[in-house]
Design goal:
With about 120 residues, the chain is mainly α. About 45% of the residues lie in helices and about 0% in strands. It contains four helices and no strands.
Length: about 120
């Protein structure tokens, strides 16, 4: 959030320095000693991070609930066989193959299909 900006609430502004704030030596002027923004901005950052994490958590819960049957089938198959290849996962779950990416490239899992080992 603070490093790259790109938030509806905070706009397209980077609020953190390029160096790692968590490795600072605590000396005056290092970010670990003081924030380069106000307390009000810090509260906005905290609220925005909480909003993003909360929304992502809820989306993950919904997806897991929506696909519970597929997840249970996958878990059973993994307990039986420990390792599954992509085709086995698709067969066990009944899920379709991932669609092509917007740029027309195949997902990474299909890259080896185009260039099989000799």
């Amino acid at each position: 959030m603070t490093r790259w900006g790109m938030s509806d609430e905070l706009d397209m502004v980077a609020l953190a320095p390029r160096e790692n704030a968590f490795i600072g030596d605590g000396a005056p002027g290092s970010w670990s000693a003081e924030k380069p923004y106000s307390e009000k901005t810090a509260e906005k950052i905290d609220a925005e991070v909480e909003r993003i994490i909360g929304g992502s958590h809820e989306e993950a819960r919904q997806l897991l609930a929506e696909h519970r049957g597929e997840l249970d089938a996958l878990a059973r198959a993994l307990l039986e066989r420990e390792t599954l290849e992509e085709e086995e996962i698709l067969a066990v779950t009944g899920l379709p193959r991932a669609p092509r990416l917007a740029d027309g490239k195949q997902p990474v899992s299909h890259a080896s299909d185009a260039n099989p080992d000799p």
